[in-house]
Write a structure and sequence with these properties.
The protein has a seven-stranded antiparallel β-sheet with strand order 8-5-3-4-2-1-9. It is elongated and about 95 Å long. Helices cover about 35% and strands about 20% of the residues. It is an alpha+beta fold.
């Protein structure tokens, strides 16, 4: 099962979710929070388009950290719990790691926040927004998002092709103008070798 929560401390509501059972999240939109050196549920914050994981509002980080502490059996009873967060893409997974073990591809792409004590007002506010869904629902949501990304990528590629075709046409036209500039100039001057008429209407070639 997956528990969903809504945080409203920022300008726009944010989605936070926690897996009750072991599941592979694989959500590139998410930022993961977990208690350092303590067993805890992994809390995920759904990032909005264009939102940077390391520039989150302080209140939103605190909501996620409080939820992480509350979902750690040991950490919930302790003060001064350190919570680490990082983008999902920075998580390192391999077959030798124990269930729930966390490691990172790049340690520099992590941030820590100290949770001095549990704030019941914060946890209770979040708990009132909780909804429950199956893991299948999470996967379906992820697939929907990936499908939207693929559609956007196809549209972007289509626009890129149209722009490339436009530029190629523009270059062909410029090349044609350069190659035929002399001919156009001569045509504008009456053909270059053509006959000129005098003021009386006689052709110059008529006078020998």
């Amino acid at each position: 099962m997956v528990y969903y929560f809504t945080s409203s401390v920022a300008d726009t509501p944010a989605v936070i979710y926690v897996g009750k059972d072991k599941f592979e999240n694989a959500d590139l939109r998410a930022c993961q929070f977990h208690a350092d050196n303590l067993s805890s549920a992994h809390v995920y914050l759904r990032l909005k388009p264009g939102q940077e994981w390391d520039q989150l509002p302080a209140g939103l980080v605190e909501d996620c950290a409080q939820l992480t502490k509350a979902n750690s059996i040991e950490g919930n009873k302790k003060d001064n719990v350190t919570v680490i967060y990082t983008p999902w893409s920075n998580l390192l997974k391999n077959a030798s790691m124990a269930t729930g073990q966390v490691s990172f591809k790049d340690q520099k792409k992590t941030r820590t926040v100290l949770v001095p004590t549990r704030l019941n007002a914060t946890v209770n506010r979040l708990m009132k927004t909780r909804t429950v869904a199956s893991v299948d629902g999470l996967f379906a949501d992820k697939e929907k998002h990936l499908s939207e990304l693929r559609a956007k990528a196809r549209e972007k590629a289509k626009e890129a092709r149209k722009e490339e075709e436009r530029l190629m046409k523009e270059r062909r036209e410029e090349k044609y103008k350069r190659e035929h500039a002399y001919e156009d100039l001569m045509n504008d001057e009456g053909g270059g070798v053509g006959k000129r008429s005098n003021q009386d209407g006689w052709d110059d070639d008529d006078f020998m």
